Amino acid sequence: MNIESNKSLRPYNSFGFDINAEHFISVQNTESLAEALEWSKQHHYPVFILGGGSNCVFTRNVAGLVIHIAIPGIELPTATTIDHATATIKAGAGVNWHQLVIEALSRNLFGLENLALIPGCAGAAPIQNIGAYGTEIGDILTSVEVLNRKSGEQLTLSASDCDLGYRHSLFKTPAGSDFIVTAINLKLSRQDMPNIQYKALQQTLQSRGIENPGCQQVFDTVCEIRQAKLPDPTRLGNAGSFFKNPVISRQQLDAILKINEKLPHFPQANDNFKVPAAWLIDQAGWKGHRSGPVGVHKAQALVLVNHGGGNGQQIAILAEQIKKDILKRFGVTLEREPVLY
Ligand SMILES: Cc1cc2nc3c(=O)[nH]c(=O)nc-3n(C[C@H](O)[C@H](O)[C@H](O)COP(=O)(O)OP(=O)(O)OC[C@H]3O[C@@H](n4cnc5c(N)ncnc54)[C@H](O)[C@@H]3O)c2cc1C
User: Is 160 a catalytic residue?
Assistant: First the structure.
């Protein structure tokens, strides 16, 4: 086993924070993962599971063992997993998500194109049920292969077992926190019929004169929108959206509409409404704000950034300040999206 000590996690977190793992190992298969877990048990070390580090805010060095999940491999459909309309593919938890999207599209397997350019690994995708441009992984996920870190048992959870919701899953709850994802299985479509329900996507396609897009055109458009809108973590450290879009009651909505009638709002179940956290943060004047080396992106109020030399504590403090301000101004509690360590 190649366990390294005092390993810098700077290349392993998209904020680019300069923190260390007490011990670190990159695992390429389930057997090595099990061995690494056994080693941590023998030494009574806590374990932190790391994919691409694009949804983590490290505020300090990581104690114990960081296990970097690097399980490779994309299994393409076989005669038993393909029919005239759909095909199932399996991806190792360490497969780069965007490469998986490209690979599927190149094989005329459709359904992942709206999720193009989301950083990170396939194994982390179900953890917060990644979503973008009207699609969530839950729409195509059939099952997740996991190793139970306590019992060592390997099992396959169906998508419904994973209890996927908006940026939520079983894995974020105490009942699922022992599971380490080793592979995911996705049911993709063989019909080139993209999902263009998402308004901003529709509008961009229309503005380019694309009336009946195929999945490749949707992929290209999603990539263009994202590249124009979101800072590239290799140039400006960030973890994408820092807050979830809050769901508020009609009473809360009416109160905010009284202050600003332009608040965008989207009906949800039980007379609730989803509102864009970015809009609230922007209205409160945080866009472009800078606190030393960290700040709020100048074009994207939802993205907190490390301009260079910042640390996780500074990001956590800034996030708390924004949260308090939004609560005071609008009576809305923002919830953090990335994992804080
Ligand atoms: C620029 C940018 C844009 C983004 N855009 C989006 C977006 O549009 N939509 C979206 O949903 N997210 C987005 N994100 C967030 C992030 O890309 C996703 O959450 C992604 O799935 C995280 O993958 P990761 O491999 O980097 O996970 P990590 O950051 O390494 O881990 C995240 C969490 O998952 C756990 N974890 C990781 N791998 C496993 C595993 N195999 N088994 C069990 N637990 C595991 C970790 O312990 C941690 O708690 C964006 C981030 C960035 C930086």
Answer: no
* Comma-separated ranges of CATH 3.30.43.10 domains in the chain: 4-69
Tell me if residue 329 is catalytic: no
How many whole angstroms separate alpha carbon 187 and alpha carbon 86?
6
337 among known catalytic residues:
yes
| DSSP-based three-state secondary structure for 37 | helix
**Three-state DSSP class for 315?**
helix
Give tens-digit pLDDT for 107-153: 999 999 999 999 999 999 999 999 999 999 999 999 999 999 999 99
Using most ligand atoms within 8 A of CB, pick from 9, 54, 67, 304 the residue to mutate for ligand 1. Answer: 54
Per-residue model confidence as pLDDT tens digits over 231-288? 999 999 999 999 999 999 999 999 999 989 999 999 999 999 999 999 999 999 999 9
Give the span between the Cα atoms of 26 and 32, in whole angstroms. 9
Specify the CATH number for 237-340; select among 3.40.630.30, 3.90.1300.10, 3.20.20.100, 3.90.78.10: 3.90.78.10
CATH 3.30.465.10 fits 74-189, yes or no: yes
Atom of ligand 1 nearest to the CA of 128: 19
Whose alpha carbon is nearest atom 2 of ligand 1?
A: 240
Q: Is the pTM of this model over 0.90?
A: yes
Please tell me which residue in 26, 167, 169, 189 is annotated as part of the active site: 167
